């Protein structure tokens, strides 16, 4: 998008998204967005926009990125990094298996190795800058953040087998810390405080303190960003009543185009549907919306959607006006189109009302 990479077009630029759920990024909407941003950047060379990742699900990719950077600037350090990250070699394709093996006492954790690698990289930052002035600040920043991700991901996968709350909090704290680092990095480059739009699921961006999540001891990105940036943050949620969604039935399963069931009676989505407007923006800071301070059911459909257990799997109670600053409601949503849809995606799901005998 900034004209600094080797990829010839937007489709190639998105080809790195290979692991589940690849369709979340490799879809026609993101493709057109990336193309548009490249055109915008070409027309505004002094204010180019970047697209950055915050999440923790790229352990093996981040390890490769750190080694690739060191291969270019310090081959001896690159070999030390290979030796340290070799701890993950048997689990490169399945990070969850690494977490299980550690929790079961089958292997020793890689914690010390990833911490040493991050510490060494940070300690040599000034030396690397002097060694090759052509190496951009961005390149070191990306390498450092990938080394940090490897450290946090190692902790995350170990925590998965201690309980959901622990691993969830590690993941969202990582995203908040990554955002802080990005704010500082871009601010130093441009000399001004950057404006950043963060795209994430409602469960990550809506303030956890206003939901059942907070009652269970979970925090999230939205809560942490509000605590750290105060009035400089505007949190916007999305809801839908029915339609279609691209999602899987299980983790690592194929993407399917699924029917979204009409929202449950009494839920936030059902109330939005009752307005009778196909799509609208609701300002939740409006004092006349005090009724939304009462906990109501709110649906959360992510990369997995199981309509058969919808109430248990996809609804939580939330106080909407505390959770978000504004809400965008699209009454009938349309599934994302993956760039490489599987045969499962083309399968038309039969509505529940279809005669069972046919």
Q: What would CATH call the architecture of one domain?
A: 3-Layer(aba) Sandwich
The CATH homologous superfamily of one domain is termed EreA-like (biosynthetic domain)
Query: What is the arithmetic mean of pLDDT?
Result: 91
What strand order characterises the main sheet? 2-1-6-3
Q: What fold name stands as the CATH topology of one domain?
A: EreA/ChaN-like  fold
Say how many strands there are.
Answer: 6
- Summing up helix and strand content along with how strands pair, one would put the structural category as alpha+beta
**Class of one domain, according to the CATH hierarchy?**
Alpha Beta
What is the beta-strand fraction?
Answer: 5-15%
H/E element sequence: HHHHHHHHHHHHEEHEEHEHEH
Q: In which range does the helix fraction lie? A: 40-55%
Give the end-to-end Cα distance, rounded to a whole number of Å.
50 Å
- The general outline is globular
* Low-pLDDT windows of residues: 353-358
Radius of gyration: 22 Å
Let me know the largest β-sheet. Answer: 4 strands, mixed
